[in-house]
Amino acid sequence: MSLNIKPISDRVVIEPMAAETTTASGIIIPDTAKEKPQKGIVVAVGNGKKDYSMTVKTGDVVLYGKYSGTEFKYEGKDYLIMREDEIYAIL
Questions:
Q1: How far apart are CA 25 and CA 72, in angstroms?
Q2: 74-86: per-residue pLDDT in tens?
């Protein structure tokens, strides 16, 4: 889970969890209808700002907004980078 990326300030790097492939009743969801995941694992955390320490830590499973952060690809994997205040909850 270690990543060679060090976010700056109050930013975190999140690896989104896979989108649901079936509904609770067992219906298979096609790729075109899958929703963007809103849950992920924190893989890197910045140092925070002056007078502000970071709440999340590496390995936390978090909930974030559907359109939060900026997507990027690193070493073949998809990640999101966002400010800590865009994270809604730690699960």
A1: 33
A2: 988 999 999 999 9
